[in-house]
């Protein structure tokens, strides 16, 4: 397993911060993998292998599920269209360039960003390039589109929108980035009228999708402390969009519900998370920065349970599947928890190079993309 994924949660992230800053602060050691007596099992429906996977880099190469086809890329530029039902390859394309972010797309295009900061639009039928444009800096967040514009966010806080048909630049918004940030950027959420973007200064912005003009901003976290490390308030998780509201989290910040039209806070409570929360069975689930999984009552926001046996194991975004909650960790284990009380119900060692990208629910199954390039569709089965 690569060193930067075996190290402690923030130490691994701080090793690749912007601005050349570093810290000698110590962090907690990860807890050992819990011993679990499984009552449910994750059974593979199909398996595939995608190039060199993450090639020992701290990247978020999330696949794109379009329904019948899953589009997935490795950092060495192997782009593959996979049949979602059977796991067979529909087509493959060697992009002959490094890729630093996952696949974005709309009805007519796929979008990727190369290691030399080129935004590429590709044909989803065969992977052929349709156009490309240069970005002002490195981009590690998935580009997103509403069919009219595709939006990319660079690591130095620039948000740029391009015409999906021609690649012509439509607008640019320059956000504020602190001296020290984590090497992670939330992908923009691009709607017909509004685009939500998150910044390393603890702010969530709503921009007009047509002009890039700010509509509102919400403070997810306020910097506190004396050192740059103590003042980290990155918002690296995408908001979870519900009916007319957004559920947001931030590192050393808040778990908050925000009104989409105005940006007004409906409620909030302190938290520290780099992952998008999950909502299921009337509960809200968060993966905390310290590895704890916490469940809250969706109506009262009172804490229902905490699973603390995954401390500092760099857990992934939680995903609900039936009566269970699934999270991965830096050693490549998938843990199955009970939605009701957080107890361990199952466990599988999936990829010894680790798990970074969120698992994706596809119907009653879950898609998992491991750091080594292993791609598997699982279904949960009760153990005899």
TrEMBL record:
Its main location: membrane. GO terms for biological process: Gram-negative-bacterium-type cell outer membrane assembly; protein insertion into membrane. The keyword Ribosomal protein does not apply. It is a lipid-anchor. It is found in: Cell outer membrane. Residues 82-307 form the Pyrrolo-quinoline quinone repeat domain. One of its GO terms (cellular component) is cell outer membrane. InterPro entries: BamB, PQQ_b-propeller_rpt, PQQ_rpt_dom, Quinoprotein_ADH-like_sf, WD40/YVTN_repeat-like_dom_sf. SUPFAM superfamilies: Quinoprotein alcohol dehydrogenase-like. It comes from the Bacteria. Keywords: Cell outer membrane, Lipoprotein, Membrane, Palmitate, Signal. Part of the Bam complex. Part of the outer membrane protein assembly complex, which is involved in assembly and insertion of beta-barrel proteins into the outer membrane. HAMAP family: OM_assembly_BamB. Belongs to the BamB family. This is Outer membrane protein assembly factor BamB. It comes from Marinobacter zhejiangensis. The lineage of its organism: Bacteria, Pseudomonadati, Pseudomonadota, Gammaproteobacteria, Pseudomonadales. The gene is bamB.
């Amino acid at each position: 397993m690569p060193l930067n994924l075996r190290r402690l949660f923030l130490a691994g992230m701080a090793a690749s911060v912007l601005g050349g800053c570093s810290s000698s602060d110590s962090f907690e050691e990860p807890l050992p993998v819990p011993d679990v007596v499984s009552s449910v099992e994750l059974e593979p429906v199909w398996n595939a292998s995608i190039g060199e996977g993450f090639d020992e880099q701290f990247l978020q190469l999330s696949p794109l599920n379009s329904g019948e086809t899953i589009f997935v890329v490795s950092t060495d530029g192997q782009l593959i269209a996979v049949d979602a039902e059977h796991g067979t390859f529909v087509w493959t394309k060697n992009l002959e360039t490094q890729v630093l972010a996952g696949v974005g797309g709309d009805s007519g295009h796929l979008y990727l960003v190369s290691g030399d900061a080129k935004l590429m639009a590709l044909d989803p039928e065969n992977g052929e390039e349709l156009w490309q444009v240069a970005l002002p800096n490195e981009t590690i967040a998935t580009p997103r589109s509403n069919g009219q514009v595709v939006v990319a966010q660079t690591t130095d806080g620039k948000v740029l929108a391009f015409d999906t048909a021609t690649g012509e630049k439509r607008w640019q918004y320059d956000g504020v980035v602190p001296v020290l940030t984590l090497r992670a950027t939330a992908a923009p959420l691009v709607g017909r009228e509004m685009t939500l973007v998150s910044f390393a200064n603890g702010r969530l912005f709503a921009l007009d999708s047509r002009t890039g003009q700010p509509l509102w901003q919400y403070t997810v976290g306020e910097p506190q402390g004396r050192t740059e490390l103590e003042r980290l308030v990155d918002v690296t998780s995408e908001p979870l969009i519900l009916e007319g509201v957004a559920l947001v989290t931030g590192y050393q910040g808040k778990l908050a519900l925000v009104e989409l039209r105005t940006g007004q806070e409906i409620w909030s409570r302190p938290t520290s998370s780099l992952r998008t929360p999950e909502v299921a069975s009337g509960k809200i689930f968060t993966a905390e920065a310290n590895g704890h999984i916490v469940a809250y009552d969706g109506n009262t926001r009172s804490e229902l349970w905490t699973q603390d046996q995954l401390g500092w194991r760099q857990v992934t975004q939680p995903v609900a599947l039936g009566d269970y909650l699934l999270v991965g960790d830096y050693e490549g284990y998938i843990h199955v928890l009970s939605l009701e009380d957080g107890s361990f119900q199952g466990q599988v060692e999936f990829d010894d190079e680790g798990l970074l990208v969120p698992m994706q629910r596809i119907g009653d199954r879950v898609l998992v993309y491991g750091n080594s390039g292993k791609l598997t569709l699982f279904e949960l089965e009760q153990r005899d």
